[in-house]
Amino acid sequence: MGRASAIVGVVLVTLVAAAALLSFVWTPYDVSALDIAAKLQPPSAGHWLGTDHFGRDVFSMLLVGARVSIAVALVAVGIGMGLGIPLGLAAAARPGTLLDETIMRGNDLVFAFPSLLIAIMITAILGPSALNAILAIGIFNIPVFARVTRGAALALWRRDFILSARLAGKGKARISVEHILPNLANLLVVQATIQFSLGILAEAGLSYVGLGAQPPTPSWGRMLAESQTMIAFAPWLALFPGLAIVLTVLGLNLLGDGLRDMLDPRLRRRVRT
Amino acid sequence: MLRYVLTRTASLVASLVVASLVIFLVLEVVPGDPASFMLGMNAQPETVAALRSELGLDAGALQRYATWVGGVLSGDFGTSYAYRTPVSGMILDRVQVSLPLALLSLALSTAIAFPIGLWAAARRGTPTDTGIMAATQVGVALPNFWFAMLLVLLFAVRLRWLPAGGFPGWADPVAAVKALLLPALALALPQAAILSRVMRSALVDTMSEDFIRTARAKGLTRWQVLTRHALRNALIPVLTIIGLQFSFLLAGAIIIENVFFLPGLGRLVFQAISQRDLIVVKSVVLLLVVAVVLVNYVVDLAYLAVDPRLRRP
């Protein structure tokens, strides 16, 4: 079961990534071209997933939308890892000190602000854009990575091989980078997959309420927002962007679970019993 | 125990102070001059000056922060610039929609997740368990606002059982609950999927403990052990997740309100953003952050009720 679902995850994620890459070189129709004569057509041979109220091809918009979703979620994970991991490492190297306390209390503070609230505050002063969505989701990711890194690093610091490294005269920063970080890689990859899938969901939510990527850039969340008033007579407009989100998030979650089972032998043993 | 409560309360107060400072900094200090920001580029200098003195912007930042917090503590959130009415009144109107929505969905998600988690844990390793876990995996991936649209399509457009949107007010409680039912269900189901997974794995972990074997050995059935002994011990991780979920439900409620055209805090804050009404944005954000921090405080105290080991002095 574990292996099969991991394979499904890999297939789904590869498909979505391929769709996003494909959209750079080819889409069935130009997503910025309006064709009012062909508006609101149900799925057909000419338009696989139908057309919207401007006559734009839904399939082409989904391909380009994948690009936005992935880009926003990926950069947000990058922000979270880039800042969260060093903070977590620093806190774990000097546990109980003022530095550790400050970092952990700062984490608590960010946890009090769900990414939607961060996005609302940023948008209120800077106006809506995809960049704000990235910032909001990225800021929320920082304490997640800081906490995971600190927790796992604390346990590693008590191990013998770290003691040997200290006896060899290495400093705390060097040990953190050369010995602690490589041993955390598995854990962090799994966490990154989870945050990536949460990021896709958050981006969809933000662009649905108009706080994400702005027109004319197609995004899955905004396609859903636009389809809402037409749901009674053009349900395909609401169906396909939603399915795209579900399949992407599902794929990433299955991949994350699979990676965790594969990389953590302790869990693998427990699964067998 | 008293020590734990006191430390936790002190950290609650500290979190609230720092969070309000952050909100104040971002929305009042970062934009430079909030008055000219709110009025836009083409405002007359006299209008800006009038708004500046109305907002009390001539005072220093620290003094303005103190005035703001002092006002909020006495229930005065200031006056909305766009609507010219007290913000506290606007918020009070909207909370009557958003809070019942969040609470109803929290209740629904817990009511759905507990039996499902218990059932999957009781049937661990069987096809039933595998099936439930696969279904929850899909549930976790569902964007709640999309699920909401599908619910509208089925129950409002096709079956015409429930309204597609709008809120009639609490004068008619039955109609009000009917209006909140679909949004609450849309919010609850993805959360229930997460919660039932946590519930199942916490129960499975507890079931491998020695005291469970003892209980089995003295003749209790598997189901009795699960409900009498394992459930209580599995409650700590479940409580943690419920606390975390409340903040997601609040944020989710803000988004879902847009699907159902509900006049809640979400609609209020998005209107305020487009009208550049920073006073309203600031108040709503503060209210939501306070709610999140308070809920986590309550959850931390609830650990005491659940786990007697924590009550030792």
Automatic annotation (TrEMBL), chain A:
<feature type="transmembrane region" description="Helical">
    <location>
        <begin position="68"/>
        <end position="89"/>
    </location>
</feature>
<dbReference type="GO" id="GO:0005886">
    <property type="term" value="C:plasma membrane"/>
</dbReference>
<protein>
    <submittedName>
        <fullName>Peptide/nickel transport system permease protein</fullName>
    </submittedName>
</protein>
<comment type="similarity">
    <text>Belongs to the binding-protein-dependent transport system permease family.</text>
</comment>
<keyword id="KW-0812">Transmembrane</keyword>
<dbReference type="GO" id="GO:0055085">
    <property type="term" value="P:transmembrane transport"/>
</dbReference>
<keyword id="KW-0472">Membrane</keyword>
<keyword id="KW-0813">Transport</keyword>
<dbReference type="Pfam" id="PF00528">
    <property type="entry name" value="BPD_transp_1"/>
</dbReference>
<feature type="domain" description="ABC transmembrane type-1">
    <location>
        <begin position="66"/>
        <end position="256"/>
    </location>
</feature>
<dbReference type="InterPro" id="IPR050366">
    <property type="entry name" value="BP-dependent_transpt_permease"/>
</dbReference>
<feature type="transmembrane region" description="Helical">
    <location>
        <begin position="133"/>
        <end position="157"/>
    </location>
</feature>
<dbReference type="InterPro" id="IPR000515">
    <property type="entry name" value="MetI-like"/>
</dbReference>
<dbReference type="InterPro" id="IPR035906">
    <property type="entry name" value="MetI-like_sf"/>
</dbReference>
<feature type="transmembrane region" description="Helical">
    <location>
        <begin position="7"/>
        <end position="26"/>
    </location>
</feature>
<keyword id="KW-1133">Transmembrane helix</keyword>
<feature type="transmembrane region" description="Helical">
    <location>
        <begin position="109"/>
        <end position="127"/>
    </location>
</feature>
<keyword id="KW-1003">Cell membrane</keyword>
<feature type="transmembrane region" description="Helical">
    <location>
        <begin position="184"/>
        <end position="211"/>
    </location>
</feature>
<feature type="transmembrane region" description="Helical">
    <location>
        <begin position="231"/>
        <end position="256"/>
    </location>
</feature>
UniProtKB/TrEMBL annotation, chain B:
<feature type="transmembrane region" description="Helical">
    <location>
        <begin position="175"/>
        <end position="195"/>
    </location>
</feature>
<keyword id="KW-1133">Transmembrane helix</keyword>
<keyword id="KW-0812">Transmembrane</keyword>
<dbReference type="InterPro" id="IPR000515">
    <property type="entry name" value="MetI-like"/>
</dbReference>
<feature type="transmembrane region" description="Helical">
    <location>
        <begin position="134"/>
        <end position="155"/>
    </location>
</feature>
<dbReference type="GO" id="GO:0005886">
    <property type="term" value="C:plasma membrane"/>
</dbReference>
<feature type="transmembrane region" description="Helical">
    <location>
        <begin position="234"/>
        <end position="256"/>
    </location>
</feature>
<protein>
    <submittedName>
        <fullName>Peptide/nickel transport system permease protein</fullName>
    </submittedName>
</protein>
<dbReference type="InterPro" id="IPR045621">
    <property type="entry name" value="BPD_transp_1_N"/>
</dbReference>
<keyword id="KW-0813">Transport</keyword>
<dbReference type="Pfam" id="PF19300">
    <property type="entry name" value="BPD_transp_1_N"/>
</dbReference>
<keyword id="KW-0472">Membrane</keyword>
<feature type="transmembrane region" description="Helical">
    <location>
        <begin position="284"/>
        <end position="306"/>
    </location>
</feature>
<feature type="transmembrane region" description="Helical">
    <location>
        <begin position="12"/>
        <end position="30"/>
    </location>
</feature>
<dbReference type="InterPro" id="IPR035906">
    <property type="entry name" value="MetI-like_sf"/>
</dbReference>
<dbReference type="Pfam" id="PF00528">
    <property type="entry name" value="BPD_transp_1"/>
</dbReference>
<feature type="transmembrane region" description="Helical">
    <location>
        <begin position="99"/>
        <end position="122"/>
    </location>
</feature>
<comment type="similarity">
    <text>Belongs to the binding-protein-dependent transport system permease family.</text>
</comment>
<dbReference type="GO" id="GO:0071916">
    <property type="term" value="F:dipeptide transmembrane transporter activity"/>
</dbReference>
<keyword id="KW-1003">Cell membrane</keyword>
<feature type="domain" description="ABC transmembrane type-1">
    <location>
        <begin position="95"/>
        <end position="299"/>
    </location>
</feature>
